[in-house]
Amino acid sequence: MSKRVGILTAGGDSPGLNAAIRGVGKTIQGHYGMQMIGFLGGFRGLMENRSTRLDGNILSGILTRGGTILGTSRDKPHRMLVDGLMQDMTETIVQNYHRNNLDVLICLGGGGTQKNALHLKQQGLNIITLPKTIDNDVARTDTTFGFDTALGIATEAIDRLHSTAHSHHRIIVVEIMGHRAGWLALGAGIAGGADVILLPEIPYNIDHVAEAIRRRVKHGKPFSIVAVAEGARSLEQAAMIKAAEVRKLNAESKKERKQAKRELKSLEAHHSGIHTVNLSEQLERLTGLESRVTILGHVQRGGAPSAADRLLATRLGSACADLIAAEIYGVMVASEGDRAVAVPLEEVAGQKKLVPLDHPWVISAKRVGTSLGD
Ligand code: F6P
Predict the structure, then answer these.
(1) Cα 201 from Cα 215, distance rounded (Å)
(2) Where are the domains of the chain?
(3) By alpha-carbon position, which residue is closest to atom 11 of ligand 1?
(4) Which of 55, 128, 208, 219 fits a 20 to 30 Å CA distance from 341?
């Protein structure tokens, strides 16, 4: 039953990737006696056939390390910049899979990686994925590794911002990662006691946000922390995005669709950084309080994984080895309570787990008096 297993990490790096590589590798080699090789730099490494052996020694001492020992990239098999041209490199990837005599390829990644993995499954390859991202937005799994670590980092940042906001009587607008899903901003906002939390899922009314801050001033609290997700949008911005989406959907020509796509991209691009600075300026004007911006950025993805992420990555990694031994392919190894379950890639790819408006986190945030800007 000896098999040859390939593994790669794709998309943004995330704490827990090395713990997962170790979890799969040690179980595969120590428990099942199979071989494992790693491809470097995500799908590009497989396309360029750049690999490294992952034997016992290499897997030792990486449990606690951040990042990924394999390197990563956002390259997609069907859209890769090669020789200055965007090309479909699927065929080369399929060839390299066979050239390496792989029985299965494990892809560790977030939403984009799940889609790319399904694409390779549809080319006839044996694929298994593991869910990683600090955004926690992969469908059909309770959680993703990376999220808990980022949640801890963002919460600590809010804790630290509190004392300076309080001392200076300022608003501090803290931008937290998450373009489409607000899990991280919501979780850290609640845990850090932010006074306002703005999410992509709940378009905000700027007047309601300002009013919440002014109410605090009236109650003797002349400072506020506003936790804003990268993708948070005002009611007006949400309406503009919706209109561009409708234009894209109803476009009658390729040219019209391209134009609508460009508009959408530029509307969404404005959210990060610039949007947060604008929001801070607006709040300064509307409340009369001084306001400052803190963008947490990649600090949230860096450094050692938390204990919970090490545990999650190890248990999903080891369950992944069991699936390979049982020859169950074309699935993501998901976390369901304490169990690891195999979910068909078709049910994961292209789906996003957004924050439901009636989620217990949303309800309890409101009950403790936090404004969500709606
Ligand atoms: O995919 C996770 C994530 O950290 C998002 O939260 C963030 O918007 C994005 O990656 C940033 O991507 P990059 O590191 O490529 O700038």
Answers:
(1) 24
(2) 4-145+305-347, 151-301
(3) 12
(4) 55
Atom of ligand 1 nearest to the CA of 177: 6
Single out the residue of 46, 186, 27, 21 nearest to residue 109, CA to CA: 21
Closest by CA to 244, choosing from 278, 268, 270, is: 268
In the chain, where does DSSP find H-type helix?
17-26, 43-47, 56-59, 90-99, 111-122, 147-168, 183-192, 206-218, 235-250, 254-269, 276-287, 307-325, 360-367
User: Atom 15, ligand 1: which residue's CA is nearest?
Assistant: 12
Q: Which atom of ligand 1 is nearest to the CA of 134?
A: 2
Ligand 1 atom closest to the Cα of residue 135 is 6
In angstroms, rounded to a whole number, what is the distance separating the alpha carbons of residues 146 and 304?
A: 10
CB-based contact 197:189 (threshold 8 Å): yes
The β-bridge partners of 38 are: 7, 52
Domain 4-145+305-347: give its CATH architecture: 3-Layer(aba) Sandwich (3.40)
Residues lining ligand 1, Cβ inside 6 A: 11-12, 74, 110, 133-135, 177-179, 230, 301
Quote the tokens at residue 367.
């009950």
Separation between Cα atoms, residue 294 and residue 96, nearest integer Å: 44
User: Residue 304 burial by CB count (10 A; 0-12/13-18/19+): exposed, middle or buried?
Assistant: middle
User: In whole angstroms, what is the distance from residue 181 CA to residue 252 CA?
Assistant: 30
Give me the mean pLDDT over the 310-315 stretch: 98
pLDDT over 70 (residue 272)? no
Q: How far apart are CA 161 and CA 149, in angstroms?
A: 19
Hey, do 4-145+305-347 and 151-301 end up sharing a CATH topology, with the first three levels equal? yes
pLDDT of residue 143: 98
For residue 334, the one-letter residue type is A
Out of 68, 72, 134, mutate this one to test ligand 1's pocket (max ligand atoms within 8 Å of CB): namely 134
Q: How confident is the model at residue 155 (pLDDT cuts 50, 70, 90)?
A: very high
Class of domain 151-301: alpha beta
